[in-house]
Amino acid sequence: MGVVVLFVLTFQIFLGTVIRGDQSGTTHVTIDDNLGTLASTYAPKVWLAKDEDYNPSSVGFHLENVKVYDGATSYSSTPSTLSTCSENCYMSSNQPLEHASATLPFFSGEQVGPSQQPPVYAVVKRINETATDILYWMFYPYNRGKNVCIGLHIFGVCIGGYSTFGNHVGDWEYATMRLVDGQPHQLFVSSHDFGGIYDWDAASQTYKKGEDAIQTEGTHPILYSALGSHGLWSTPGSHVYKDMPAIIDDLRDETSNGTAWDTWRNVTFTMYRPDGGYTGSWAWLNFKGRWGNRKAIKF
Ligand SMILES: *[C@@H]1O[C@H](CO)[C@@H](O)[C@H](O)[C@H]1NC(C)=O
Ligand SMILES: *[C@@H]1O[C@H](CO)[C@@H](O)[C@H](O)[C@H]1NC(C)=O
Ligand SMILES: *[C@@H]1O[C@H](CO)[C@@H](O)[C@H](O)[C@H]1NC(C)=O
């Protein structure tokens, strides 16, 4: 008997999970001890688009290729030495960008494959006794904007020229998983200037917002990263995200199943701190400035 109890205890410690029964006979999982496991369990599968030239990277990779500008001073940094700085601080590529559409080699990010891929940064935030949010932050060194006709379309030809909107260095995207009692509850997906809350539907094993559904692969939600700009969507296809005045093209995101970024293969996590004060390899989270060149065209 003693042996059995010991085995059960060891098994639970191994999982890092404490399971306790309550009066109604159901079990609850207290999640303090297994946050790392949960962060991996629910980390998304992100499909990078076909023909994507601008892959994700680690923060460290980006910092090797930029300097931090703080007023009159500039300096190199690493994830653990990046200072809090102010909102006026920014990063700028070590090599200059000659014009708004110029690119540099590091814009292509890091390798994304089955054995090697950039990390996803999970920030775990306790909401209350039962609810926990896991914010999955994904970084890309470069956001490629859109070529939009700013003139008139006449018989399918753009008269008046194209302009590129939204090219910028340093591109953060995120999705938030809300767990209740250690189980999936909702997924919040950000895409450009809007986001959406998707509710977990156990019957279909998907996250649903009306007719829209985010599929899963095992425990992992499947998201699609838009070509160049990396906004996250629930499905492959062509998505209009900003209705432009009639004479101007719509801004569209194109998503497809190009390269699988199985983010659970490289999840690094930390607890959310309301007061900043991240330390060690997470010190970069305190940075208040921009992650890219100052002259970026913001749209
Ligand atoms: C995870 O990311 C880190 C930081 O970039 C990298 O050093 C490591 O090789 C990556 N691990 C895998 C398995 O891809
Ligand atoms: C915890 O927070 C969730 C999400 O806001 C809410 O639905 C739930 O009622 C809260 N539970 C308690 C015990 O406060
Ligand atoms: C990728 O998309 C194609 C259609 O474009 C589809 O036939 C294929 O099954 C998809 N593959 C995966 C792994 O989702």
Automatic annotation (TrEMBL):
It comes from the Eukaryota. It holds the Pfam family Vps62. Keywords: Signal. The keyword Signal applies. Residues 1-21 form the signal peptide. This is Hypp5406 protein. It comes from Branchiostoma lanceolatum (Common lancelet). The lineage of its organism: Eukaryota, Metazoa, Chordata, Cephalochordata, Leptocardii.
